[in-house]
Amino acid sequence: MKNKAKSRRVPGVVIFDTTLRDGTQAEGISLSVEDKINIALALKKFGVHYIEGGWPGSNPKDAEFFKRMQKISLKPSKLTAFGSTRRKNIKASEDKNLLQLVKAKPDVFCIFGKTSLLHVKEALLTTPGENLNMIKDSVKYLKKTGKEVIYDAEHFFDGYKENKTYALSTLDAASMGGADWICLCDTNGGSMPEEITLMMKEAMGSLPEMKFGIHAHNDCDLAVSNSLAAVSAGARMVQGTINGWGERCGNANLTSVMVNLILKKGVGIKNIGAKEIKKITKTSRYIDEVANIIPKKEQPFVGCSAFAHKGGVHVSAVMKNASTYEHLTPESVGNERRVLISDLSGHANLKARGKQLDINLEDKEKLSEVLKEIKQREAAGFQYEAANASLKLLVKRIERKMPSFFDVKSCRVILEYGDGARKKCEASVKLSVKGKIVYEAAEGDGPVNALDNSLRKALLPFFPQVGDISLTDFKVRVLNPADATAAAVRVFIESTDGIDRWTTTGVSEDVIEASWQALVESIVYKLMPK
Questions:
Q1: DSSP category for residue 414
Q2: Distance between CA 264 and CA 266 in Å, rounded?
Q3: CATH of region 14-290, choose from 3.20.20.70, 3.40.1650.10, 3.90.180.10, 3.40.50.2300
């Protein structure tokens, strides 16, 4: 399926990434200096044009980041330092914030100033005239360094609605100071796309020689739409964050903005085209991983559910022609198609998933038997959408093609608590392996870790490859909270041998038993001949 897009008249849009500054203002996100460096390098590798590293005058961490970055090149990307206009009634050369910006030695400066009279009078507590001087003086001072200056017109769209004449005069002040760019900010995220279009055109008409950009927030869930509307109106810079991180409801999600511009609107992004956009999923997930954030599975284009199909009618059609239920190919953004298996699945789902897992399910009788078993087990709480290894083992059991690597005779877990002392956990397992009874015990940081250690200890003499396995993720979900402590739980365990990754699942009213089920299946899956 080919992605069709018509050419537009807005060439060479540039991307200004503020993940490391505005993005870190999101609740629950905290990056170390090392994290910020790693993300900056990932953004450089992807091809982002401006990488805003932080506000060096506001906190020691950002000051340290810029100090470290003086020895690290981001070229051809431009490292940008953020700050504000000078304080009222002082010279720009005496303002500590501006002095810190210069000291940071970035490639580009980006400063914000007030557009709204409400903010001028009630936040800055100054006069409209002094605010204009603050904007002009600050831009002019930074331009004397010979570097590029971007002026962010904070609350522009709200300020425009309050007093159009004054809002435009603040842009004129930035222009007179020598700004290279003026970026219009929908700081409260309350504007509609048609308002963005109208006011962007009005601003550009007032300063026809100036380059304009857009900085949108997502409080109305319109930040991406507003950014696209601004580009259609003539903006050549889009500011935002990877994955939409940001204060309150977040910033414009650059991941979605870039894909839409390139693959949907046919708008050129400087040095980023269809070839580069195939790396967007990998970049998106890496940045979430660095921040220790679970990626949103439903995120457009890059989420693991973006090209996931569950309904039988959908799957049947997609297997014949993907364009029936996909507006673009997953490969075009570096993602992959997934067919989900659940109690809603039909034969088409299972056949398609079988192909992806290299399982032959063409036999109708076998297919019906497998589907019946899956639906019965899912009614009991199992879920196979994300547990591919457990699904494959289930099919092998039904086919009676499952080798008997070992039999579990018993297992036991002992937890010992002392007064103020760290708890101790020991697990023991009794197995039958190749005609021998094996008993082993091991300690661990918790019951699951202790069980894992004892199981592998027992199996290693017979199956050395078990030593390659490590657990990378462990999730527990309570299935029926109303039953309180008697509630059933579902456990997912993700494992890796350094090459492959696989996920297994278990369900029980006992979390240790559910974990044990998933652990055993994880080992068995590794031992299965591929």
A1: E
A2: 6
A3: 3.20.20.70
Range(s) of the chain covered by CATH 3.30.160.270: 407-527
Would the pLDDT of 7 be above 50? no
- Residue 318's pLDDT is 78
For residue 425, give the nearest of 436, 433, 417, 434 by alpha carbon. Answer: 417
Residues 405, 521 contacting (CB under 8 angstroms): no
Helix, strand or coil for residue 290?
A: helix
What local confidence, expressed as pLDDT, does residue 483 receive? 57
When pLDDT is cut at 50, 70 and 90, the band that residue 313 belongs to is confident
Q: Using alpha carbons, select from 169, 183, 15 the residue that is nearest to residue 110.
A: 183
3-class secondary-structure state, position 21: coil
Which amino acid type is present at position 489? Answer: V
Query: 407-527 — its CATH code?
Result: 3.30.160.270
**Summary mean pLDDT of the chain:** 89
pLDDT at 6 over 50: no
Task: Outline where DSSP puts E strands in 247-369.
Answer: 308-309, 338-339
- Edge-first strand listing for the sheet containing 489-496: 470-478, 489-496, 501-508
* Cβ density class 407-425: b for 16+ within 10 Å, e for less: eeeebebeeeeeeeeeeeb
Task: Report the number of secondary-structure helices (H) and strands (E) in the chain.
Answer: 18, 16
Residues 232, 238, 243, CA angle at the centre, nearest 5°?
115
Numbered ranges of CATH 3.20.20.70 in the chain: 14-290
Mean pLDDT of 118-144: 97
Closest to 243 measured CA to CA, from 185, 188, 296: 296
